Amino acid sequence: MSAESVPKGSSLRVVHLPARTPYARKLNGAGIHALNAYSATELPEISPGVTVPPDVTASWLLSHTPLDWLDVLHLHHIDLETPAELERLLDACARADVRVVFTAHDTQPMIDGMDSFVCRLGLLLAAEVPWICLTEGSRTDLATILGAKLPAAVIPHGYVVPPETLRHRAHRPAGAGVRSLLYGAVRASRDQVSPVVNWSLSNSDASRALHLLLRAASPADFTKGATGKLPMLLDAARSDPRISITLRPYPTDAELLEAALGSDLLLLPYLWGTHSGQLELAFDLGLIPVCSRVGHLPEQFELHRQHGQGVPEPEWFDWTTGHPNLFGERFLAALETATTRAAATRRRIDHNFLDYRVHEHERVLAAHLALYEGGTP
Fold first, then answer.
1. pLDDT > 70: what percent of the chain?
2. Close Cβ partners of 158 (under 8 Å, ≥ 6 residues apart)
3. CB pairs under 8 A, 24+ apart, for 53-57?
4. CA distance 30 to 273
5. Is the per-residue pLDDT at 2 higher than 50?
6. Pairwise CA distance, residues 127 & 77, whole Å
7. What is the DSSP string of 291-352?
8. Closest Cα partner for 211 from 249, 190, 241?
9. pLDDT band at 174 (very low <50, low <70, confident <90, very high)
10. What is the DSSP letter of 270?
């Protein structure tokens, strides 16, 4: 199927930059034809033999101008694009009459420094790009950072696992012990080392298990400084036979779902952050999150408090105040409380919550389509 086979006006041709994550790929259908929200074997061609990669970059798009083969470019993360590349991309979109929409998933940079992050946001503001924030709190924060009123709509994150995928799934039966999952890349924004050490040394219960699901290691993961934590994490994990490690190039949705269905607790030891897709994953599956109270994660939970019975409140621990030397005891106290909670109740998928997720997604798609079609926030 080629992009030209989709008549302009029937469905808007959208490119998500990038589309590797579930929250980008699910923005497809209902008038939205996402050109790179497919598996590698399903990507539609934009020209003979050419498909848009899921992890598309600004440089790739600039090498495939004019951009008359798409209608909307949805920017999800801009940390990997230089300000100069981003500015050239915005100019190329303007020349081709491509509408640009930006979702501000973070209010702090995940990779580069704050100055470059603010510079990129300023370029989007100057280009009058419509913004999407996931929470009211993040919209307020970004307006304060930029010193300007943002042209931003608030559209919640929504599900991570499609509800229809979970209809006939169930958690794998547990033994006597509580099972914990720690997932994600090794980043400066997460303290994965001390939670693993604390989990391992705080108990000797042979029935407990901790599963680490990690992305493939890069040279930066072995350098000194804030990001060079992987060797310490591996040393801590290998010293305890109750800890298993699965390392994948980039864990697939299916691999993450299988790991989550074999877990009771999801460990979210963020040092900083704004929103969390992993928190939404815990809501989808009824896991108990052991989660630091950072950014607007509490607001994410409040959106769902009244929906269904399978959305456990996270066991919060506070790393936003106090001396860093106290972080360990706060995490461990939350872990012990969550372990007691998990031992007392079996995990289950709440089908009433899945029904809610279906209707929520319909609203999410409609809100995105309105912006894609030229609506104002």
1. 94
2. 23, 26, 280, 357, 360, 361, 364
3. 54/18, 54/19, 54/20, 54/25, 55/18, 55/19, 55/20, 56/15, 56/16, 56/17, 56/18, 56/19, 57/17, 57/18, 57/81
4. 31
5. no
6. 17
7. EE--TTHHHHHHTTTTS-S--PPPEEE--SSS-GGGHHHHHHHHHHHHHHHHHHS-----HH
8. 241
9. confident
10. B
Cβ proximity of 303 and 158 under 8 Å: no
For residue 234, the surrounding DSSP H or E stretch is helix 230-238
With residues binned 3-state (H G I as helix, E B as strand, rest as coil), the percentages for the chain, rounded to 5, are 40, 15, 45
Partners of 213 in the β-ladder: 183, 246
b/e sequence 213-223, b meaning 16+ C-beta within 10 Å: bbbeeeeebee
Q: How does pLDDT run across 10-57, given as a tens digit for each residue? A: 799 999 999 988 999 999 999 999 999 876 667 888 989 899 999 999
pLDDT-based confidence at residue 264 (cuts at 50, 70, 90): very high
Residue at 12: amino acid letter = L
Please, which residues bridge with residue 153 across strands? 132
Chain segment 269-314, per-residue pLDDT in tens: 999 899 999 999 999 999 999 999 999 999 999 988 877 566 889 9
Evaluate if residue 121 carries a pLDDT over 50: yes
| Strands laid side by side in the 288-292 sheet | 243-248, 209-215, 179-183, 265-268, 288-292, 315-317
Average confidence score pLDDT of the chain? 90
**Contact criterion met (CB below 8 Å) for 284 and 164:** no
Number of Cβ within 10 Å of residue 108's Cβ equals 14
Cα distance between residue 94 and residue 91, in whole Å: 5
Q: Which two tokens stand for residue 225?
A: 């400084």
Residue 72's DSSP bridge partners are: 14, 99
